[in-house]
Amino acid sequence: MNLIVMLTHNDVTVPNAKEVFQSCADLPVSHWGFKNVGLPVEEMKDLVKTIKAAGKVAYLEVVSYTEEECLAGAKIAIECGFDYLMGTLYFPSVAQLVKNSNTKFLPFCGEVWGSPSVLGNSIEGIIEDAERLKNLGVDGIDLLAYRFTGDATELIKQFSRKVEIPLVIAGSIDSFERLDFMNQIHPWGFTMGSALFKQKFVEAASFRENLICVVEYLQKIM
Hints:
The chain is an alpha/beta fold. It has nine helices and twelve strands. The radius of gyration is 16 Å and the shape is globular.
């Protein structure tokens, strides 16, 4: 189970993302990411280079829904050298572009719209869509479980039991109870960003101190 630390707050990459990463680069966290909004492309390239120079894995999450926007996000992911592209809706043009690169593709599944994102459809419909994407050859799924209009816990349980594909649960893992649940379900990965900036684990403490708390808690329960 991979903790993917997002250098994002309220769905936007923080302006001092490079400094935040460098303050935590020594910690035993291998997976780091950010959004395609908040930084100019040249700063994104520099941040990816910094992340990978530290021996870490880089993720770009793109919250876009039109084919044009999703293609633009995929091109940025490839141009900047990200290891993984998360998000976007699935379009054959996006999948083909990523397939011809060194970047892996983990799109959203289900009906996704809005900003902040909302995940609609039924649990059965989301699982059917994930199976469709699996058969189309994606590398995994970016599941906005806690943005689901229904029962998020039940969605995660059924999805992890029925769909055999790498699963990243994106966002809103902001309590020790949800960390316990992640450990119970054991997805391939889950993202965490705003919870660290909002000091959800250690009040009145830094991003680094909150991340250390999460890492130590995971080491204890896993």
